[in-house]
């Protein structure tokens, strides 16, 4: 009878990061981080565990989201806990909690992992990471302009050119004014139109028209609304401000609404212009009332979030992942010929590391030829092979795997050769 | 009637990382990462969500741990899911899953967050991060020696001196031999003695004796065992090997057992020598059979884990956190005097960033004096104040907050001043 063996698969809808994938993930996180810090943003973080209340507080729609689309469970202390599905409520909680110690405007960023309990599909997994940037306590539209500039610069810092992507801008207050101008005043009807229009690009013109008619009940009114949301000639001060920073791949798109209820005016998205990856990669907006669910005055905020999965898809679509970041090879591989030389190899490696080099030993039991082959395949720059002779004489042979050049000398003398390379 | 306000507290037993704490956390993670990579370790990661089976497979003791000390819940697909309480089972799963594509020996590290459902206390929270390093596929003791050298070097790279900490080494096979030598052969009795001895430093000599008597039922035998576990004169090849690398703050401690069942021979800990923080900071050992819970042959492993909470306690106890890492201030703060100058300030900031500097704007509505004061408190190096005049003339004033020196010139001319600083 054999013991039941466990599967080596990861849990459904989440990813294992083997070193090659991890290297790409780190490259993405580090680039995000560098760009945010050049804009003066400070990094924060929090636990993935949050009280479920935090997500229910925003209204009935969110209660449904908490119940059906999140990982929520009761802990042994009878608390209802949720694995955070987004970062904005957490950051609002932290800002509200420390409001008296913080100096505004505040620029904060984070790279949290987020959880959604939904069917895994391309670009949407159950766990993903997100680059989250927010400015708190700045009501002026220059904050909106800066946030858009930061989102633009993030892609530029990955080597993207402005032709590869487009920034789509809208404003919820302007939309309300436009709807008011054709006689639609009722907030619930506006909300329904907004939700439908948000999906406009994903459905056919006929479907859009049918659903719109259901909401407004009048053919002429439906046409007027369609005219409003399809009009690309609009402009506003945020658009002009962004352009004044030398950013031209931005336009008004009246269909942009963003899903979250809490946005109050500016909303924006970045979409990939490549037809094979024509998706929204980033979304954000201004939310002026989010901290009011805690005690104290409202603190205005504007922010965006950008996912790691869509980011990597964008980089791969446009061939923007630099080859060198995939290599995680040590600079020097010290190769003992037999197990008897393993400890000496460790001593040599320890010595070389003192000069700051990345050094590993191949203390496996394979033949020396195989070991050298692996070091070369991996991308190591140097190998030092150690046999019985080398242990006795203190004279070592180092080989540059790129040039084929070899040197034989004492370890101290060889250090110069290594340091020059 | 007022709406019920939410608490701004984090969930029980977890931490919020405000920028100052986050800066320390990042310093710890980056130092860990650099040391591991200098030893040729490659970084991997995985999701915090794992099938609960993974933790139950190691035996009944673990089933209890899964049920009582982990966050475990049933997902909507009726799968039992656990928030990972440790990383070793995950890395064993990943290594076993890719065994045919990987080249051994494998050196992998990770900095995962781990979850334990226990009462929060000093140094033990419900969520913590851990530096996890493992070598797979190297049976020779040079791997054990290297792992101990890596754990030593990690502390040295934080600026610790060898007097600040001590490495305690033991070997489970040697312990079995020692117990056998006084006539104790039964594995369950050895396991019971091991569990008790692991707690020896936390209980009194009397308590230890009483419990030991209960296990072995014989006064003389209890004395022999006490003699064995208190003997510090022992040595072994791992100890000698570590010393041959120039590491002297290591000794045999026969009470070291480490909690996990899966360790098979070498086990080690690092303890802080400061009497105010006299705790274990790191623990590890060799586990030769862990991958056998998946299909395929056994792949030997040796690894250690080091927590972020105990690491930070150690650094604080020995005053090893460098002051400069706490500062997250931008290099330049651009300060508009009035809201009308905000957009111009954003344009100036955008220009300076192109030279790679960290630049923020203070687009709040406070008085300019307050804004300069905040920039100075925060640790900004330069301020550029922009009023109506500056917008008209294209001539800007930059002030070095450290030296007090001021320059007035065009932005392009001022860039040199900034770049030199």
Walk me through the topology.
The structure is a homodimer of 421-residue chains.
Chain A: H1 19-38, E1 42-43, E2 49-51, H2 53-56, H3 60-69, E3 72-74, E4 80-83, H4 88-97, E5 106-110, E6 113-115, E7 127-136, H5 141-157, E8 165-171, H6 172-181, H7 187-198, H8 205-216, H9 219-230, H10 237-244, E9 250-252, E10 266-272, E11 280-287, E12 301-307, H11 308-317, E13 332-336, H12 342-353, E14 359-361, H13 368-378, E15 382-386, H14 388-393, E16 395-400, E17 406-410, H15 411-420
Helix pairs in contact in A: 1-5, 5-10, 7-8, 8-9
- CATH fold-level label of the largest domain in chain A: BirA Bifunctional Protein, domain 2
Largest interface: A-B, 99 and 99 residues
Sheet with the most strands, sense and barrel status of chain A: 9 strands, mixed
Q: What is the class of the largest domain in chain A in the CATH system?
A: Alpha Beta
- Name the helicity range of chain A: 25-40%
Measured distance between first and last alpha carbons of chain A: 57 Å
CATH superfamily of the largest domain in chain A: Bira Bifunctional Protein, Domain 2
Provide the CATH architecture of the largest domain in chain A. 2-Layer Sandwich
- In total, the number of strands of chain A is 17
Structural class of chain A: alpha+beta
pLDDT averaged residue by residue of chain A = 92
Strand percentage of chain A, roughly? 15-25%
**Overall 3D form of chain A:** elongated
**Overall tally of domains of chain A:** 2
How many helices of chain A? 15
Rg over C-alpha atoms of chain A, rounded to the nearest angstrom: 28 Å
Which assembly state applies to the chains in this document?
homodimer
